[in-house]
Write a structure and sequence with these properties.
Length: 111
């Protein structure tokens, strides 16, 4: 009877050791799988980050071009306004010099 108990105890100990070893092996395999998955996620994140940087640089370039275009348009607007003012002054001066233009007509044109 004692021999049977010893054999059962040995079998139990061997089963426990085998279970521990299999558990460690499974954990190692699971950890390796997680490492591989994490590496893939990091690679994809790096690619997306590079794409985002590229898109951001492109957007900043478009903004700079738009600002330059706006500055040019503003400059043209100022020049056009100055030209309009000079033309109006010339018309007024010509009307003032012209003996055929009535002073009352000049007042109505300016109003």
């Amino acid at each position: 009877m004692t021999e049977i108990l010893i054999i059962i105890a040995v079998i139990v100990v061997v089963a426990i050791i085998a279970a521990l070893l299999l558990g460690r092996k499974a954990k190692t395999k699971r950890d390796d799988t997680h490492r591989t998955e994490a590496r893939e996620h990091r690679e994809e994140a790096g690619i997306r980050s590079a794409r985002a940087d590229s898109k951001e640089a492109e957007a900043e370039e478009k903004i700079a071009r738009a600002k330059r275009a706006q500055a040019e348009a503003d400059e043209h607007s100022v020049l056009a306004s100055q030209e309009r003012e000079a033309a109006d002054e010339r018309h007024a001066h010509a009307d003032a010099l012209d003996p055929d233009v009535d002073e009352d007509d000049n007042e109505r044109k300016r109003s």
